[in-house]
Design brief:
The complex is a heterotrimer, with two copies of chain A (about 190 residues) and one copy of chain B (about 260 residues). With about 190 residues, chain A is α+β, with helices and mostly antiparallel strands. Chain A has helices at about 5-15, 25-30, 35-50, 70-75, 85-100, 105-110, 115-125, 145-150, 165, 170-175; strands spanning about 20-25, 55-60, 60-65, 75-80, 80-85, 100, 130-135, 140-145. In chain A, the strands form two sheets. Chain A has a three-stranded antiparallel sheet. Chain A has a three-stranded antiparallel sheet with strand order 6-8-7. In chain A, helix 1 crosses helix 3 (about 35-50) and helix 5 crosses helix 7. Chain B has helices spanning about 10-15, 25-35, 45-60, 65-85, 90-120, 150-165, 180-190, 210-230, 250-255; strands at about 140, 145, 195-200, 235, 245-250. In chain B, strands 3-5-4 form a three-stranded antiparallel sheet, covered by helices on one side. The longest helix of chain B is centred in the middle third of the chain and has 33 residues, at about 90-120. The radius of gyration of chain B is 56 Å and the shape is rod-shaped. Classes of the chains: A alpha+beta (about 190), B mainly alpha (about 260). At the B-C interface, helix 2 and helix 5 of B face strand 3, helix 5 and helix 9 of C. Strand 5 (about 80-85) of chain A pairs parallel with strand 2 (about 145) of chain B, so a sheet runs across the interface.
C-alpha cells in the first residue's frame, strides 16, 4: 500500500525481531549508505501512527509496543482460584459440624491452637461469622457458618452435610463424651 | 541412455562412499546420473555401476559396511536374473525385483524432493523471524477461593482423627470442684453475705453426681478453713454432723 | 498515516503482541460487533504489504513475521540456530508425508538406519512428536509432525504440502540438479 524504502523495511524488521530494545547505534550500522537514521525512524513511526502498534523509545534504543489504549481490550483475566490452607479448612469444617462453637472448643476438637490469622481468613472470605456469645464466664464468642458458606459449597442447607456418624465410623463413639450434636441434629 | 556407459563416475563415488546415507542413497544418485526420468532408468546399468563401485572400494578399504555388501549381494543376484535367467520363473523374479528397486528409488526421490521443497520455504527462525519481545496481557486473578465439599470433609476427618489420636494419651479430665475453684468462689461471694451462712450455699450449681456433690462440699470446707486461717472468715458448727456455718471476718472481732 | 478502524487496530495489536500464531477463533471473539474477520485481516495484511513485517497464516492462526527477502540482512543481527542437516530434513519429509510412521518404516524408505542424533535434533526443534503406538508386536512408537512444524515452515495445514507425484514430475523436469526450487517459490 505504502511505498517502503529499503532502509525503513530493514529497521522495522530488525526492531520487530529483537528481544530487547535495539540501540540506536546498532541500527545506524545496519543502515544502507546514505540513509538517515532519524529520518528512517521518523518514517517508521509515522507509518504506524494511529495503528495498533507503535514505535517507542526505551532506554538507549527503540522497540515496538502495542498501543497503550488497547491494553484494556486485550487484557485477558485468567482466574486461578486459591485453595484454603489446610488449617483454615479444618477450622471451617469444625465450625460447620459443631456450630455454634467457641474458639476454645475448636481448639479442643482440632487438638491445636487456632491462630488469629486463620480466623481472619475465614472471616474475610465470609465463610464464618460471630453468632452471639456463650453464657458462661467470659462470655466467649460463638462462631457459625454464613449463608455464603452454603453457596460456596453448593449446599441448600446445613442438613446437606453428611452426618457425622456416616463420616466418622470409628471416631463416633469416642466423640460421644464431649461434642455430640452435628448440624443435622435438631 | 546413450551416455550411461560413457561417463561412469565410479572413481569419485569410491572416495565419497561415506557421503551417502546408505546404499539406496548411492543407487538414487547413480540413477539420477543417468539423466532420465526415474521411470525409465536402466536397472541393469545401475546394478553394474553399483557393483563396480563396491568392487573398487573393497580394493581400497577392506572394512566396508555390511549393508553395502548385503545390497551388493542382492544386486548381483538381481543382475544374474536379468542377464541370464535359468528359466521363465527366474526371469519373472528378476523383473519383479527390478520393479521393486525402481519403486523404492522413486519413493526416496519423492522424499528428497519433499525435503528440498521444505528446505526452500522461508523457515521461521532461519529466514523469517517472529516477534522478539512478545507482550502478555494475561492477568492472573487469584481472588476466588477454590472450595469443594470433599476437601471440607477430608479436613474435618483429618482434624478429628488427629485430636482423637491425641485424646488417648490425655489423663481423664477432672470433673470435680477443686479447692482452688472453691476458694475463688467463696472469696467472691462471702463479701455479699452479712451473717452466718450454711457453707452449702456456696457450692456450685452444677453437681451431677453425689460424688461430685461431696467433693464440692469438702473442697468448699477446705477453702473455708483456708480463709479462716488467714483471718478472712469465721467457721462454726453447732452440733456434730450439723451444718457448718461461715461468715466474713475474724472470730474474735464479733465476740 | 492511514485511518485505522478500531477493529483493525485491535487485531493488529493482539496478533503483534503474540509470538505464536493467534487462532482465528480467538480473534473472532475479540472483534467488535459487526466487524468482519476476513475483511479486517485483509486490511491489516494490505497495510503491511511491502513492509518489513508481514501477516501470514500459519497453522490454525495468523502471525506477524519478518519479510523473507530480508533474511540475509537479519541473519547478521538476530541469532540463528543451525539449519537442519540433509538427513534430518529427509527424515522430517518422510514423517510429514507418511505420518503416523514408525522408525522402522522411516529406515525402510531411506534405506539407512535412523541415527539417534537425527531423531534428537527433530525432537529438540519441536518438529516431530510421538503419536501413539502401532498395534503390532512390540508396539513401536508412531511419529508425526507437530503443530510447530506448520508454523516453522509457514504452512496452514498438512494439506499445503505438495503431492508427492507433483514433486516427482518437478524433480524429473529439472533433471539431476541437487536442490531445485520448491513450488512455493515465486
Amino acid at each position: 500500500m505504502t511505498d517502503y524504502p529499503h532502509a525503513e523495511r530493514l529497521l522495522e524488521a530488525v526492531i520487530f525481531a529483537s528481544r530487547e530494545p535495539v540501540p540506536l547505534r546498532a541500527l545506524a550500522t545496519l543502515l544502507p549508505d546514505g540513509a538517515d537514521l532519524d529520518a528512517t525512524l521518523a518514517a517508521i513511526h509515522a507509518h504506524h501512527a494511529g495503528g495498533g502498534i507503535e514505535l517507542v523509545e526505551a532506554g538507549q534504543g527503540v522497540m515496538f509496543r502495542t498501543a497503550p489504549d488497547l491494553a484494556f481490550a486485550l487484557r485477558r483475566v485468567v482466574e486461578v482460584p486459591r485453595r484454603l490452607p489446610r488449617v483454615a479448612m479444618e477450622t471451617l469444617a469444625i465450625v460447620a459440624y459443631h456450630q455454634p462453637v467457641t474458639r476454645a472448643q475448636i481448639e479442643e476438637i482440632r487438638g491445636a491452637s487456632l491462630s488469629q490469622s486463620t480466623l481472619d481468613a475465614l472471616l474475610e472470605a465470609d465463610l464464618v461469622a460471630p453468632a452471639g456469645h456463650k453464657e458462661v464466664p467470659g462470655r466467649p464468642t460463638l462462631w457459625a457458618t454464613t449463608p455464603h458458606f452454603l453457596v460456596q459449597f453448593g449446599l441448600k442447607s446445613l442438613r446437606d452435610l453428611p452426618r457425622q456418624t456416616d463420616l466418622l465410623v470409628e471416631a463416633a463413639s469416642s466423640s460421644a463424651d464431649t461434642h455430640e450434636p452435628g448440624p443435622a441434629d435438631p | 541412455m546413450a551416455d550411461i556407459d560413457s561417463a561412469p563416475p565410479t572413481e569419485a563415488f569410491i572416495v565419497q562412499l561415506d557421503g551417502f546415507a546408505g546404499p539406496l542413497d548411492l543407487l538414487l544418485d547413480l540413477a539420477r546420473a543417468q539423466k532420465v526420468d526415474l521411470a525409465n532408468i536402466s536397472i541393469l546399468a545401475l546394478v553394474e555401476q553399483y557393483l563396480a563401485i563396491i568392487e573398487g572400494a573393497r580394493r581400497i578399504r577392506l572394512e566396508l559396511a555390511a549393508d553395502w555388501l548385503v545390497m551388493a549381494a542382492w544386486l548381483a543376484w538381481l543382475k544374474s536374473r536379468l542377464l541370464l535367467p535359468e528359466d521363465e520363473t527366474a526371469a519373472e523374479e528378476g523383473e519383479i525385483a527390478a520393479d521393486v528397486l525402481a519403486a523404492r528409488l522413486r519413493a526416496l526421490e519423492a522424499i528428497r524432493a519433499g525435503a528440498a521443497w521444505l528446505n526452500a520455504r522461508p523457515q521461521l527462525g532461519q529466514d523469517v523471524f517472529e516477534r522478539g519481545a512478545p507482550e502478555d496481557f494475561t492477568e492472573i486473578d487469584r481472588s476466588r477461593l477454590k472450595l469443594d465439599l470433599p476437601a471440607l470433609l477430608a479436613a474435618y476427618l483429618a482434624a478429628r482423627r488427629r485430636s482423637g489420636a491425641k485424646r488417648q494419651y490425655r489423663p481423664k479430665p477432672i470433673l470435680y470442684w477443686t479447692a482452688q475453684q472453691a476458694l475463688e468462689r467463696l472469696t467472691r461471694m462471702l463479701g455479699s453475705v452479712p451473717g452466718w451462712t450454711d457453707i452449702a450455699a456456696f457450692l456450685p450449681e452444677r453437681r451431677e453426681t453425689p460424688l461430685a456433690h461431696r467433693a464440692a462440699l469438702s473442697s468448699t470446707l477446705i477453702a473455708g478453713l483456708e480463709l479462716a486461717r488467714g483471718g478472712d472468715a469465721s467457721l462454726r458448727q453447732d452440733a456434730p454432723f450439723g451444718p457448718i456455718l461461715i461468715r466474713p471476718g475474724a472470730e474474735h472481732r464479733n465476740d
